[in-house]
Amino acid sequence: MSKVETVSADDHCIVTDAVAAAEKHTDGEIVTVIASQSDDYRETPIYWAVAAMFFVLACIAVFPAWFEGWLSVFTGGWVHNYTPGEYLTIIMLLLAVTFAAAHLLVAWKPVRLALTPPAIKRIRSRARAISLFRVSAEKRTMGLTGVLIYLSMAEHRAEIVADSAIAAKVSPDVWGEAMADMIVELKAGRAGAGMAAAVRDVGKVLAEHFPKTTDNPNELPDRLIEL
């Protein structure tokens, strides 16, 4: 998926209009959220820095002659018989420098995101979506018919989370069409259009299982929430 740029004012209008239109035919309530990122992944630099240290240590153990040759560079090519204490001190300093350098490199946001495993991104994005759902939609409607459509820009992940009444009638794989239609637009860099496409598909499912009744108010905001 190509990188989606900042959400525009037009995107907000497109999504808000799509939610309002979809809810005309259902008692379901659709909440839309676009987040710049689901998590900071602050542990990623530490993991990679530790891995770099072990890699350097393994190289020293497997190729001791290479390491001794590298040390001779700092003594002008002269052979020096290091004591065990000196040798260990040099290795510890090298590992400390390796850790600091690797941590500094991976702490840079683009590198940190690139080196975070996809499985971790998927888990964190899902967790963020569920957390936001609990705050914004869960048990906040009379019929327990709230749905959250969540898009995390940095991870290129989207999630749909539904309240209990909907989950009891609609299998999670039903949302596949909404996700697919959203991805088509996101690949073209149209975040608002992608979210609106998902809203329309979700609205059709909700209209089928929870058609509009006369006494059901608009209980959740239609506007796009940008985090």
TrEMBL record:
Keywords linked to the UniProt accession: Membrane, Transmembrane, Transmembrane helix
Annotated InterPro entries: TPM_dom
Any one Pfam family match given in the protein's UniProt record, by short name: TPM_phosphatase
UniProt domain TPM: residue ranges: 143-204
Transmembrane region(s): 46-67, 87-108
Claim: Transmembrane helix is one of the keywords in the record: yes
Keyword Transmembrane: yes
PANTHER family named in the record: BLL7265 PROTEIN (PTHR30373:SF8), UPF0603 PROTEIN YGCG (PTHR30373)
Protein name stated in the entry: Membrane protein
Lineage, uppermost ranks: Bacteria, Pseudomonadati, Pseudomonadota, Alphaproteobacteria, Sphingomonadales
